[in-house]
């Protein structure tokens, strides 16, 4: 990948059409529209794709940016959801492998989460996840995060699997993240100190 051709921008309301382009007509990941960690399971089950899309649009309109859009040669190609843990309540649920080590971290504005990635199919396998992760870490640091956490997956059946929406463990290790908990085999909770 030509690094100079890849850029990211925080998802602001004016960039909503680029988010739609990345998510595609179905909303990526089975019509999720990146609401999986924003909505509790019972609430999410009641919503169809259009309602999930509207929920995410309302979140973008209310600000601040909930993540970054990645561009290759000026075209929207990827997405990484990054922000304070409190912005993704289901990520903090006691039933999830991503729950905080210290419950207070769920409300601490300095503890951020990288919870989702999505790269359009034509861009997968080209190292864009590494570039999105680096940009997400920089964004968190610039916005006052003291540490950032992720709960990636060790492996999937296919290298281009949609199951990689949490990111592959190897890219987090390469970026200096360290495991702080393991509640399920293959799904470590990882952390990077930013101060």
From TrEMBL:
Signal peptide: none
Protein name listed in UniProt: N-acetyltransferase domain-containing protein
Organism ancestry: Bacteria, Pseudomonadati, Pseudomonadota, Alphaproteobacteria, Hyphomicrobiales
PROSITE patterns: GNAT
Source organism superkingdom: Bacteria
A Gene Ontology molecular function term of the record: acyltransferase activity, transferring groups other than amino-acyl groups
InterPro entries: Acyl_CoA_acyltransferase (IPR016181), GNAT_dom (IPR000182)
Domain N-acetyltransferase: 6-195
Gene3D superfamilies: 3.40.630.30
